[in-house]
Design goal:
The chain has 378 residues and is α/β, with parallel strands linked by helices. The chain contains 14 helices and twelve strands. It binds iron/sulfur cluster.
């Protein structure tokens, strides 16, 4: 039994097992994703977090088969709705894209083609998978624009992307992703380019549509506030590997390893003294070409010295189930991390960790979600 198999979830939609995405370069093999396993059920949101280069986006692009015909070697298993994606032909994979799995990209201005109207692009995405006339596809595009909250969709359907605001473009992207009612939506930093009020509207929209379509969502983000608000489960990635995985309210309140502590501590806490300095994670993400020996986080980890026998710098910790929890995996050699976190990390003073924990508990509402479109409190 894998660690994931003993938890109660809805109908399993996506299973990723021992996924490896390696890129052959002139300097050697870049191991962008190195043995990643997780699964997502229908109607569930999985938040994947980590710094740039941790493998979040690369692993998700592998689900869409977007590393095919590149210098990447992809191994492992990706099973979507019972179908193993890595063994499909290019044509079979092309038919899955958009219909069974769709992506909402970070920058809609780059993702939408500037030469075609927004409506034509949504209609095209619909016609690829449905044998319908152009006028029926346009009608569907108008319907989708209305569904994602674009005012006067029958008129705006003929606008070009540059005639839409940033928030409207992101809504249009969501409409395009949902036009074929895919079971799985991968949202790669979908609100990064948006201001906080529009971000809140887009997240609300995604949640509303997820309920309506019963889709599973993989939300790739570096924003733990978004994760606290949106995700049912969190997967923390570092150096191409999962380093912590568990239910959101468990993982964000009882994080078990120092990298997750660092992510939480570096979140600005809007309730604390604004003169207090931020607490960034020291150092830089590891080279994926020649990663550090042992735990990839050890050169940056202030707790490594506590682990005996130089274990952190010599032995890669296994991703293991935390004793006494139903489902919470962590990759760390440190003994009794829960006590270290509560007695030492949190005791250092106010930090984002407390704010995120309060947000998870519903004590501290996520401020942007309570602002109206003009930025006033509602
Ligand atoms: Fe730090 Fe060691 Fe845990 Fe890695 S295994 S996070 S270096 S304590």
């Amino acid at each position: 039994m894998t660690p994931h198999e003993d938890r109660v979830v809805g109908e399993q939609l996506l299973t990723v097992k021992d996924l490896r995405v390696h890129f052959k370069t002139h300097d050697g093999m870049v191991k962008a994703v190195d043995g990643l396993s997780y699964d997502v059920a229908r109607g569930q949101t999985l938040g994947i977090v980590g710094e740039s280069g941790s493998g979040k986006s690369v692993s998700s692009l592998a689900i869409l088969g977007l590393h095919r015909n590149t210098n990447a070697t992809v191994t492992g298993e990706i099973t979507l709705g019972g179908v193993e994606l890595l063994t499909l032909t290019d044509e079979e994979m092309r038919r899955k894209r958009g219909r069974d799995v769709a992506m909402i990209f970070q920058d809609p201005l780059s993702a939408l083609h500037p030469y075609y109207t927004v409506g034509a692009q949504i209609a095209e995405a619909y016609r690829i998978h449905n044998d319908v006339s152009k006028s029926a596809a346009k009608k569907r595009a108008v319907e989708m624009l209305g569904l994602v909250g674009i005012p006067q969709p029958d008129r705006r359907v003929d606008d070009y992307p540059h005639q839409f605001s940033g928030g409207m473009r992101q809504r249009a992207m969501i409409g395009m992703a949902l036009v074929n009612d895919p079971g799985l939506i991968i949202a790669d930093e979908p609100t990064t380019a948006l201001d906080v009020t529009v971000q809140a509207q887009i997240l609300d929209l995604l949640q509303k549509l997820q309920k309506e379509f019963n889709s599973a969502i993989i939300m790739i983000t570096h924003d733990l506030g978004v994760v606290a608000e949106m995700a049912d489960e969190v997967l923390v990635m570092y150096g191409g590997k999962a380093v912590e995985n568990g239910p959101t309210n468990e993982l964000l309140v009882h994080p078990q390893m120092p990298y997750t502590w660092g992510l939480l501590s570096s979140v600005p806490d809007i309730t604390s003294d604004p003169n207090l300095p931020l607490r960034p994670i020291p150092g830089n993400p590891p080279s994926l070409l020649s990663p550090p020996s042992g735990c990839a986080f050890h050169p940056r980890c202030t707790f490594a010295a506590r682990v005996p026998d130089n274990l952190c710098s010599t032995t890669v910790p296994a991703l293991e189930q935390i004793e006494g929890k139903t489902f919470h995996l962590s990759r760390c050699h440190l003994r009794d991390p829960e006590a270290v976190y509560h007695n030492e990390v949190l005791a250092e003073g106010p930090a984002g960790a407390s704010a995120i924990a309060a947000q998870v508990a519903g004590v501290l509402p996520n401020a942007p979600r309570h602002l109206d479109a003009e930025g006033g409190e509602s």
